[in-house]
Amino acid sequence: MTTIPDTTTKPSTSTFGSDGPAIRVRGLNHFFGDGELRKQILFDVDFDIAAGEVVILTGPSGCGKTTLLSLVGGLRHIMEGSVQVLGRELFGASREEIIASRRQTGFVFQLHNLLDFLTARQNVEMSVQLDAAISVRERKHRAESMLAKVGLSNRLDYYPTALSGGQRQRVSIARALAGEPRLILADEPTAALDSHSGRQAVELVQAMAREQGCTVLMVTHDTRILDIADRVVRMEDGRMIP
């Protein structure tokens, strides 16, 4: 993990009010590698996403979209700049603060990342398993209810290998939403799906996020799904395009 020099000025850790943006990024720079191999990936990125907004981030391969998504999700260490998510500053945040932020975030990936040795229901239950306040009975109920909402009530006890690609992605969407997150981050959720299944998947994310009042940031190359967003933003060469 990269060490932040002592000379770096840490952004304010003050939180937003209830009417503040769900995501606020300012002056974000990111690098890969060290020494002569050090390469800048993100350049002075600024953007806001309002609470409840569905935003699609698009741009050519290698422009930094997935890197940006991983920084907002607390999956990478922030080197320079400010990333505030749901009122919490992630730059310089402690491990406990990062984990707390992740627990308010649901992730949907290009590859479903389901565990093949668990059933669909068990995969979804995992997303709320670490919350001691939720009983085993409630975890099971949430998983079954969420799978029913994505049209898989008849596939509860199927293992991922017995499901189609579209069904596996539906399970991953159910898993992302079962913990009742305030933010959904989706990375190329249609990339491994045919056009019909892909469309169904993103419409499910949109509809279920609306139902739960979630904010959504989705990275995609798929121009066929841009209409599901409230707003489309574009990146090129690590920079936001006005």
Shape: globular
Count of runs of 4 or more consecutive helical residues: 6
From the coordinates shown, what is the CATH architecture of the domain at 51-66 and 103-241? 3-Layer(aba) Sandwich
Q: What's the oligomerization state?
A: single chain
What proportion strand? Answer: 15-25%
Strand order of the largest sheet: 6-7-8-3-9-10
Structural class: alpha/beta
Report the span from N to C terminus: 32 Å
Low-confidence stretches: 1-18
Rg estimate, integer Å: 18 Å
Helix content: 25-40%
Which fold name corresponds to the CATH topology of the domain at 51-66 and 103-241? Rossmann fold
Write down the secondary-structure element order: EEEHEEHEHHHEHEEE
**CATH C-level label of the domain at 51-66 and 103-241:** Alpha Beta
**CATH H-level superfamily title of the domain at 51-66 and 103-241:** P-loop containing nucleotide triphosphate hydrolases
Number of strands: 10
The largest pleated sheet is described as:
6 strands, mixed
Mean pLDDT: 86
Could you walk me through the main structural features you see in this protein, from its secondary elements to its overall organization?
This protein has about 240 residues and is of the alpha/beta class. It has a domain at about 50-65 and about 105-240: P-loop containing nucleotide triphosphate hydrolases (Rossmann fold). It contains 6 helices and 10 strands. It has helices at about 65-70, 95-105, 120-125, 135-150, 165-180, 195-210; strands at about 25-30, 40-50, 55-60, 80-85, 90, 105-110, 185, 215-220, 230-235, 240. The strands form 2 sheets. A 6-stranded mixed beta sheet has the order 6-7-8-3-9-10, sandwiched between helices. It has a 4-stranded antiparallel beta sheet with strand order 2-1-4-5, covered by helices on one side. The longest helix is centred in the last third of the chain and has 18 residues, at about 195-210. The radius of gyration is 18 Å and the shape is globular.
